[in-house]
Fold:
Amino acid sequence: MHATISTTEIFLIAMGIILSVPYLIWRVGRTDYFAPLVVVQIIAGILLGPGILGKVFPDYYAFVFNPQVVQSLNGIAWWAVMLFVCIAGIELNLKQVWEHRVESGITAGLALGTPLAFGSAVAIALLAFPGWIGAKALDWQFVLGVGMACAVTALPILILLMEKLEILRQPIGQRILRYASLDDVAIWGVLAVILMDWARVGKQAGFLIVFALVTLAYRRLMRSLEERDRWYVALVWLVACAWGADWSGLHFMVGAFLAGAVMDADWFDQEAMDSFRRYVLLAFMPVFFLSTGLRTQWGVGGAAVFLAAGMLLVASVGGKLLGIRIAGKILGWPRAEASIIGWLLQTKALIMIIFVNILLDKQLITNETFTALLLMAIASTMLTVPIVAPRLARARELVFKSA
Structure:
């Protein structure tokens, strides 16, 4: 039977599974409160990977996710994540950060630095055991990479969750976006340091210099264009920046982020940009989630992976909450407000998964470390809404009573 089915047909079977299974779980299970569709898609990617489906039904797994199909899916996944990271760069509001630079600097610094320190401590502990550090990693790259994975805030997912909680356009929502935006810049800057290849440092420096010079001309060009032309030119710019970064030895996703970061959000209609982000999430990103799930492994033992994930979760969530608590004391915030901000800023999911995919691509972490970090990202994101929603309700009730 298999001989009569073409690669194209098997690819379409895989796409059908990718698009339908997470949606059915999300809709039928009504998981939206604690697990938005994007989180269910990530979980489904793990379930459909070699560690779960591949173990239970190895023949079917090998049939559907054969090398030719996986190669095709990877191409879609690369383009999807390039678009998504570029959008994340565009949505950075650094002007707002600069206007409130003292408050934003203190909060973002502590929100990033504390979980980074805690996560790095866990990474140092993992170095004592085989199977966690990647084949091409130096100890400091592994420690800093895992630590930064614990410190990441997923700006696009944060936006989705704050929309759900109806605080995105409120003052507290805009403040949280400022803190997350500053941390996003730091995350990609640290990633560039981790990926610095001293054998190719000349190429990397050359790329950054050329990028800075061409950006000046690009921004002048974009200001002179009508909006409908800006969309096309922006996609060409994205491809060029991603290619240049990958050629220099950084990573194409670093280039994709830089491409978006130098664009102004007001060049594009906000509703159109929101719709574009949703369409990318709907039509393309599920393939990236599946390709991420295909990379999960449990080679050092399932119990060890879950233990590592638990340690990383405590470091990530505890570090973020402690950092924000300290910032709140310095800046005089009410304790309840600091708690809400801390829980929202610990949201991981997409950006963290993209970050650790790069670490895995560069062989700085193993598949087992990748799996533990992925589980940590899912758990931290699923905790957010159930914990924040009742706290927001209590805060609104207090405001209503005092009015």
The first helix runs from residue 7 to 29.
